[in-house]
């Protein structure tokens, strides 16, 4: 059983940035219970917020809600996720992994407001050229132009940095590029995730070496994404909003360059 309070854990980040890889690594620990991607997030989180407000207005009986509120929220995470429910008896961390849920940071902070059991977050980050290159070929992708992508990706990273400022010590970063480049994957994960969360690899259900890339573009889309066009590379790297994040996190990244597009192709995004 967990020796202290059960802590909420949210794995988030822009799509195609390693949220599944991160969640799989964390889930090697028997003390981490992460559900899959949340369906109907606005409705689910809105319902939990309304439930919290109602119970807290019940006078003396609100203490009963206080005692079980986290359990209700964890149950809702499981109910809102497709697939089988993940159950880890005695888990220290319980939550879910869902891309783009950094945008719900304020909601999570309001829901999980016990001083002794505030939420922890892992934000997954990847260089924007690789993200856009992979995102473009996903059948579910709704972002059609590089300009719209830069805007959305920038908002995501901006939110991550606000999270770090608002919740110091509770927001970790999983750099997918650094993980892929690491010579020792276990040492990298130990430094960036396991030790900060107090997870002991000696107790893991499987070794780190068992991790597989089940979310690669070749698996999800059935083909490898082609290199980006030069104008896409320039648009991402030179954008006034995204430039400072590119320089801060990905100054050494050189994206592969594809063929040059004609003016009509550029007009179409």
Note down, in words, how this protein is organized.
- The protein has 269 residues and is of the alpha/beta class.
- It has one domain: Rossmann fold (3-Layer(aba) Sandwich), CATH 3.40.50.
- The protein is built from twelve helices and five strands.
- It has helices at 19-26, 41-56, 62-79, 105-111, 128-135, 146-166, 176-181, 185-197, 217-220, 230-238, 243-249, 263-267; strands at residues 7-13, 32-35, 93-97, 120-125, 171-175.
- The protein has a five-stranded parallel β-sheet, sandwiched between helices.
- Helix 2 packs parallel to helix 4.
- It is globular and about 65 Å long.
- The N and C termini lie far apart (53 Å).
Shape: globular
Question: How much is the radius of gyration in Å?
Answer: 20 Å
Return residue spans where pLDDT drops below 50 for at least 5 consecutive residues: none
Q: Number of DSSP helices? A: 12
Distance between the termini: 53 Å
The share of residues in helices is 40-55%
Number of strands: 5
Q: Provide the structure class.
A: alpha/beta
Report the top-level CATH class.
Alpha Beta
How many domains? The number is 1
What portion of residues belong to β-strands? 5-15%
Mean pLDDT: 91
Q: What labels describe this entry?
A:
5 strands, alpha/beta, 269 residues, Rossmann fold, 5-stranded parallel beta sheet, 10% strand
Structure summarized in a few sentences:
The chain has 269 residues and is of the alpha/beta class.
